[in-house]
Amino acid sequence: MVRMAKTGKLFVISAPSGTGKTTLCKKLFKALPNLVRSISVTTRSLRDGEQNNREYFFVDEKDFKESLSKGYFLEYAKVFDNYYGTPREFVEKNLKQNNDVVLAIDVQGAMQVMKNFRSQSEFIFILPPTINDLRERLLSRHTETEIQIQHRLAAAKKEMSYVKKYDHQIINDNLEEAFKKLLSIINRGSCKI
Ligand code: 5GP
User: Fold this and answer.
1) How far, in Å, CA of 191 to CA of 98, rounded?
2) What is the 8-class DSSP label of residue 38?
């Protein structure tokens, strides 16, 4: 009989920009401190309030591409003209140690994880109630220009066409309700329970 080694689980969370994913993930890590957050590498510039090595590892494109060529990333994607990637070693080490890991990544990256880690992953997609609602949220956070917002809305529509490939969908029309659903999905799927 072949005995499979027990490993942690990967929870992949995707959402169009402005859907509230960051807020929901922050609440999640506070509620479940044993859940491991993978910090991505990105070539985008820091936003107000962000810190290098906390929200992301911020690098330049040359360094990103060098890491990419060395196989450093478990998955990567170019999103809104910037590169983003998940450090492979950190995630694989935690899975081996039977820790559950969360990847908050875009749909292109999620499809790569689906291909390579399907049996040990759960895929969660967070949706805005409507596209108009998303536009309002993007406007209110004042971090993008009008052109960037239009870009993000077009990208959101494209991303939302992937929702059927995900195991779970959460509509974030009420933060607390959406959070309860997210928590229950993670608690049910967790290897620790
Ligand atoms: P933001 O720049 O607004 O933080 O993120 C933009 C998009 O990049 C979001 O959809 C976010 O989930 C995605 N993203 C962040 N880190 C990664 C990553 O490591 N890989 C991939 N594929 N997407 C990422």
Assistant:
1) 8
2) P
Q: Point out which residues pair with 83 in neighbouring strands.
A: 78
Note if the pTM is more than 0.85: yes
pLDDT band with cut points at 50, 70 and 90 for residue 192: low
Q: Which fold has domain 10-189?
A: Rossmann fold (3.40.50)
Domains of the chain: which residue ranges?
Answer: 10-189
Strand pairing report for 40-42 and 56-58: parallel
For 115-174, what is each residue's pLDDT tens digit? 999 999 999 999 999 999 989 988 888 888 889 899 889 999 999 999 999 999 999 999
Residue from 57, 72, 82, 84 whose mutation best tests the ligand 1 pocket (most atoms within 8 A of CB): 84
Q: What is the CA radius of gyration of the chain?
A: 17
Residue located via tokens 């039977």: 98
Pocket test for ligand 1, best of 40, 51, 153 (most atoms within 8 A of CB): 40
